[in-house]
Design goal:
The structure is a single chain. This protein has 2 helices and no strands. It is mainly α.
Length: 80
């Protein structure tokens, strides 16, 4: 089974980009308000959650492709 290492996932990349944008906006807002440490912590939490969600979506896509490949293989062999 030849599966690509990183499947193309526009939606996953878009949500990662949105998390990055939101993290930067939260950091800038809190930094301008005088809470640099809180802004940094919040930005890191948002980035961590966004990255975790990105990796989760990629893993789900890989698993789905594996199941599809197995189902296609079974159909070719005439199995259930």
């Amino acid at each position: 089974m030849n599966l690509p290492r990183v499947p193309k996932q526009r939606w996953a990349r878009a949500t990662l980009g949105l998390s990055l944008l939101f993290a930067v906006a939260a950091f800038v807002y809190l930094a301008l308000a005088g809470s640099l440490f809180q802004g940094t912590v919040l930005a890191l939490l948002i980035l961590g959650a966004g990255y975790w969600e990105y990796k989760k979506k990629l893993q789900e896509k890989r698993v789905a492709r594996q199941y599809e490949a197995k189902a296609e293989e079974q159909r070719r062999e005439g199995g259930p």
